[in-house]
Queue: 3 jobs
Job 1
Amino acid sequence: MRTLCGLAAAFLLAVAPGVRAQLDNAPTPVPLPIPIAAASTAMPAQDIDALRAVHAREINDLSTFKTAGLQRAAIDPYLDSTAGQQFLRELRAADPAAPAETIYARAVEQLASGSTLPDVQAMSAALVKIVPHGQSVSPYSPYFTTSAQLQLASGQCASLADCFGLPLKSEAPLYDVYQIMPKGTVNVFVSQVAPTQELGGLVRRRGGAQQYLLPNRNLWSAPVLIGTIKN
């Protein structure tokens, strides 16, 4: 979620893969309502550590992180549609003082994180987001997912980061899982996480998980920590 979602940056947000070996003194993962298995890592720990040592600046500023998601040729017509206009209205409601061009740019950025145009769904259940252990969830991240999607990703992908297209900056051997609840029945925008790459293709993520885009976080409760899972 670019932090779940996003899932994840949000998703949203916000999160990334853990490929370093878990430390002996790391906290024991806390079971979630839906048990989440530990996913294997996509790259050996020593390779990731070497990349961190050589490319620390690029990893930290995300200057090489790229998403192979939707392009403007698909996004602009979507934003002209009924669903797209609703997406823009919710972005404006979240930040009424922002200029129209800023709102539109945010919409493009969020939609480009997916490889598919979002489906609008009415949601009255909890959503979740993973962040590196010890970090908190940004109050603005729109990227979330479901516990079921985390479970699916842990069984199908080399790592959670692989399914959720996460950058190295957010990589961790353990993730804290935060939950939010809608204030009533809220519309969400569900798309498929796009593939990503970093450091000129040295690190590639396949994406493919479902992300739940939340353009107006004011419609949701504050995040609550519900557990810790392995990458």
Job 2
Amino acid sequence: MPLTLWLSLAAICAMGAMSPGPSLALVLRHTLGGGRFVGVTAAIFHALGVGFYALLTVWGLGALIAGFPLLFQLITWCGAAYLAWLGIKALRAGQAGALQPVVMTTNRGQAAKEGVLVALGNPKLILFFVALLSQFVTPGMSAVAKAIIVLTAMIIDGGWYVLVAVLLSHSRILPWLQQRAHWINRITGVLLIALALRVVAGPLV
């Protein structure tokens, strides 16, 4: 893969990773609830979910969606339901935190599970890869070039959210965030539910 083409790929992956959304909210929540290593765990497993979609893209995800539109619709609805469920959990935690300032605790197992499922349950990721990453895949592309695409998407996504978790868990930042955990939980819940409703309402553009 030419360097200029790879730089374009890396820039697109970086823009996708850095855009605010449920993934950022997930890493923030687990960093608040479990500390640095739990937040980093969520980031790494989210990257594995991203890598899975990247792998499907290089294997022809666009053709699969075109051939089985009902399957894609089912995936999006299941993803919307899961995002809504996470949003409701976050809102409930926010309401409790308003009465007593206790952060919703999490552990590495929960962070790993939700990291993967938020990535897999976010239909925006599917459309991101089909619309953008698939442009880098050609019929005669070698297995090495396809592996570079998958690894680039995973490393950039994981690297960004690991950096977020490390910065947020800084000794000066984390206590400030924990004091406002109920507001962060509420914002997270609203974001997740809004995305779920947007998915159910119709195609994302």
Job 3
Amino acid sequence: MHTLLVAANPDPSSLTHHVREKLEAALHPVSVEAADLARERFDPAFTLADRRAYQGSGTYPADIVREHRRLERATDLVLIFPVYWWSMPALLKGWIDRVFVNGWAFEHSPASGLRPKLQALTTHLLPIAGGDSGAYERHGYEEALRTQIEHGIVDYCGSRRGATAFVYESEQPSSEATARSVDRAVRIISGAIHARSRALL
């Protein structure tokens, strides 16, 4: 078992990074690697080189090869991110656009159709939302976000769906309430990963 935690927030003192640190501690003794996309200065812009690699007429850029190797070591992936406009930040979306590409995460051609390739990976989601759970339920925001990522990305690439745990009301004035929400989300994700680890023993 090896878990890759991917965090996308430019502020190292943000709740996003606090949650990542708490989750990393809760996963002990499972092997964990943390990827801070902002600190690592990952470039989310999809370039002509990315496009040519996607089409099979070029090689993957060196920074993408490094991400592929990092993901190939992982049995579990956890995406930890603040919700921006009911979706993920551009930094994380660009990471997925550039890394989860044709030929590596899946293969698609007019002749053979779709062949997912990430069956060995389980993907978990830990979105950090400013709104409350009631608003997300009333307006269908949680369902829309889960459909976009779980079905549109995770299922498409053949990865197993892991746990999804929202941290709601992340900007409320009561630090105690925020702490309870964080503890709950960390407990759900770490519990799912520990359960998988025990099942493999």
